[in-house]
Amino acid sequence: MVGQSGLASNWQANRFPFAQLWKAVAAKIVTVHDLNADLHSHSTASDGTLSAAALAARAKANGVQLWALTDHDELSGLPAARAAAQAAELGFVDGIEISVTFAGTTVHIVGLGISPANDELVAGIAGVRAGRELRAKQMGDGLARVGIRGAYEGAIKLAPNPDLVSRTHFGRFLIASGVAPDMHAVFRRYLTEGKPGYVEHRWAKLGEAVRWIRAAGGIAVIAHPGRYKFTPTEEYALFSEFQAHGGEGVEVVTGSHHAGDIAKYTEMALEFGLLASRGSDFHDPGESRLDLGLLPGQLQLSPRLTPVWSRWTAAELRAEPLAS
Ligand code: AMP
Ligand code: MN
Ligand code: MN
Ligand code: MN
User: N- to C-terminal Cα distance for the chain?
Assistant: First the structure.
């Protein structure tokens, strides 16, 4: 693993193109941990409301130095995201967020630094996406049973990618219909376990998701662990099995983590020897708790952690070749 000084020398050797950042690092104004990395975000290719190009522009405007697009079970936004990042001289890694069922619960596994052309990954997530349409129809049926008509059609209309209809699109439809005031309320009343629009669904297996990510040369990361309602035993099993399958990272800082979660997953990352990641999980300016790259100061990764980006060389992060 590349340590802090190793990364710095990598950057130097590869002439990291972001001159300002490099000068700041060289002058020890920022450390590797201070990098404004936002490695979790969604575009219109899944359940975000901004295009990949608009996200890149927003990331740049918000001071992001290293960005990853991580659409749910979907890679189609990545070429446009990479091109826009290159144009903006924004560091970029290709990403994905894979839906997994573990111990009867939906768990999300982010893959970072993946190759989007990898056959195993492409085929794997195509299988995961395939169940979404029937699930969406059943969600619509469930909502119709409590008197909410047209939810399936409404959600489809709000989903720019017809292969990727998600609960978020249903949520937006239900809010627009005046059935609930905001996303928090709509999920609580209609879209979570036991509620009329919830449909039990089997996603990928944990080992499959990790295997596809690794096959594509990426780092598998447990997304927002503080959101799962596991018992301590189940959570320990998730971390252990994830690692046994070859999973290497955990999101310590994310939009849904409070200070207590950050402290807890800092310790878990250290206990399991996992790399630490950081990302807003940005979907939409009005809905998301954190804007792209605007993770407050106290949400830096602890210097005790090894950031996931310490794995990549400057050449891998470089947006475009240096002109000179
Ligand atoms: P799906 O993949 O169709 O099950 O949709 C999952 C998506 O719903 C997540 O990625 C979030 O964007 C969104 N989501 C899940 N739970 C909530 C919640 N409690 N409040 C707002 N959005 C949520
Ligand atoms: Mn989402
Ligand atoms: Mn997620
Ligand atoms: Mn996400």
Answer: 30
**E strands, the chain, where?**
37-38, 66-69, 91-102, 105-112, 219-222, 249-254, 275-279
| Closest alpha carbon to 265 in 246, 284, 281, 278 | 278
Q: Give the count of beta carbons closer than 10 Å to the beta carbon of residue 202.
A: 12
Q: Residue 32 has which token pair?
A: 């590797």
Name the token pair of 79. 């070429």
Q: Tens place of pLDDT for every residue, the chain, 324 residues?
A: 333 333 333 334 343 445 555 555 554 445 577 789 999 999 999 999 999 999 999 999 999 999 999 999 999 999 999 999 999 989 999 999 999 999 999 999 999 999 999 999 999 999 999 999 999 999 999 999 999 999 999 999 999 999 999 999 999 999 999 999 999 999 999 999 999 999 999 999 999 999 999 999 999 999 999 999 999 999 999 999 999 999 999 999 999 999 999 999 999 999 999 999 999 999 999 999 899 998 876 688 999 999 999 888 776 676 443 333
> Ligand 1 in contact with 283 (CB < 6 A)?
yes
- Strand-strand pairing, 219-222 and 249-254: parallel
Radius of gyration of the chain (CA): 19
C-alpha to C-alpha distances, 257 to 121, 148, 243, 253, 305, nearest whole angstrom: 28, 33, 22, 6, 17
Q: Which ligand is nearest to the CA of 168?
A: 1
Q: Is the CB of 167 under 6 A from ligand 1?
A: yes
Distance, in Å, from the CA atom of 110 to the CA atom of 251, rounded to the nearest integer, reads: 9
Query: Ligand 1 pocket: which of 184, 187, 228 to mutate (most atoms <8 Å of CB)?
Result: 187
Site of tokens 């209309």: 157
Per the CB < 8 A criterion, the answer to whether 210 and 247 are in contact is yes
- With a 6 Å cutoff on the Cβ, whether 72 touches ligand 1 is yes
Distances (CA, A) of 102 to 108, 202, 266, 283: 10, 9, 22, 24
CA-CA distance, 125 to 72, in Å (whole number)?
Answer: 9
